[in-house]
């Protein structure tokens, strides 16, 4: 099974979304050595690669946005695709040592690019990010972000900064984005989010104090939603945000 990426698009058979086999990879000029294994176990059949942005899909195939394949590929294939994308991105961005510029060598026993000249080791990047759903009585706080093209509302989220714990990130991001203070942080769940290399770690929290004051360059709108309010469009079930919100819906709400 081969995962061929063009930027954040995956090459699949146009009608069935089947992944290309080794013969098709050879047909489009991908040598076996260019395909990176996505597991360190010997004999694993899964390989991944990034191709040049200008490459066209062969006849009968198409490059499709990885996000668009949620619900098209089964859960196992989608999880493999996410892993494959992160490995391919790691290989694409580590063609040279970041210290001395020498081409590194990939170790066979772990995901590590090691420089033969200076010994510097580079591992696949994982960027942790927190997500938090704030509860206030029977209401929850949902926000619409300025950087998204949809009108969908979701929980607050933000990346962990150097020196922070996840909990410290929650307190900082909540205060920066909506001006509130929260407490009683409770872990909910996590999800690999390969766009391109995040790990989303979700929590619930209880409102403590403050009035909503949005950070305008990050948040287009934020408000409390509770019983009797019209339900906004929310994050889909495929994301941890969708699970988090649906697990804490106000009384009387239901969501597909």
What report would you give on this structure?
It is globular, with a radius of gyration of 21 Å. 17% of the residues lie in helices and 31% in strands. By secondary structure, it is α+β, with helices and mostly antiparallel strands. It folds into two domains: 2-94, no CATH class; 127-247, Nucleoside Triphosphate Pyrophosphohydrolase, CATH 3.90.79. The model has no long low-confidence stretch (mean pLDDT 93). The relative contact order is 0.13. The chain is built from four helices and 14 strands. Strand 1 (2-6) and strand 2 form a beta hairpin. The strands form three sheets. Strands 9, 10, 11, 12, 13 and 14 form a six-stranded mixed beta sheet that branches. A five-stranded mixed beta sheet has the order 3-4-1-2-5.
CATH superfamily of the largest domain: Nucleoside Triphosphate Pyrophosphohydrolase
Query: How many H/I helical runs?
Result: 4
Structural class: alpha+beta
Examine the coordinates and then state which fold CATH places here, giving the name of the CATH topology of the largest domain: Nucleoside Triphosphate Pyrophosphohydrolase
Features:
2 domains, 256 residues, six-stranded mixed sheet, Nucleoside Triphosphate Pyrophosphohydrolase, alpha+beta
Topology:
Layout: E1 2-6, E2 9-13, H1 22-27, E3 36-37, E4 47-50, E5 61-65, H2 75-92, E6 105-106, E7 113-114, E8 121-122, E9 127-136, E10 139-145, E11 156-159, H3 166-178, E12 181-193, E13 198-209, E14 219-225, H4 240-246
Parallel strand pairs: 1-4, 9-13
Antiparallel strand pairs: 1-2, 2-5, 3-4, 6-7, 7-8, 9-10, 9-11, 10-14, 12-13
């Amino acid at each position: 099974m081969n995962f061929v990426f063009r930027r954040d698009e995956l090459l699949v058979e146009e009608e069935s979304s089947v992944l290309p086999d080794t013969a098709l990879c050879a047909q489009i000029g991908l040598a076996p050595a260019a395909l990176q294994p996505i597991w360190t176990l010997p004999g694993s059949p899964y390989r991944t690669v990034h191709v040049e942005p200008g490459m066209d899909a062969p006849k009968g195939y198409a490059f499709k946005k990885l996000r668009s394949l949620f619900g098209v590929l089964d859960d196992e294939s989608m999880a493999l695709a996410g892993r494959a994308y992160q490995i391919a991105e790691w290989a694409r961005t580590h063609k040279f040592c970041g210290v001395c510029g020498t081409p590194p060598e990939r170790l066979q026993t772990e995901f590590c690019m090691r420089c033969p000249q200076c010994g510097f080791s580079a591992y696949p990047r994982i960027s942790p990010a927190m997500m938090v759903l704030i509860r206030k009585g029977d209401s929850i706080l949902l926000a619409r972000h300025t950087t998204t093209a949809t009108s969908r509302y979701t929980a607050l989220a933000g990346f962990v900064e150097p020196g922070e714990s996840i909990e410290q990130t929650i307190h900082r991001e909540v205060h920066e984005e909506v001006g509130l203070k929260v407490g009683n942080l409770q872990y909910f769940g996590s999800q690999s989010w390969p766009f391109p290399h995040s790990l989303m770690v979700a929590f619930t929290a209880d409102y403590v104090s403050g009035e909503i004051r949005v950070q305008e360059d990050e948040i287009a709108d934020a408000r409390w939603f509770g019983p009797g309010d019209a339900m906004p469009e929310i994050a889909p079930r495929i994301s941890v945000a969708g699970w988090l919100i649906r697990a804490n819906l106000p009384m009387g709400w239901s969501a597909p």
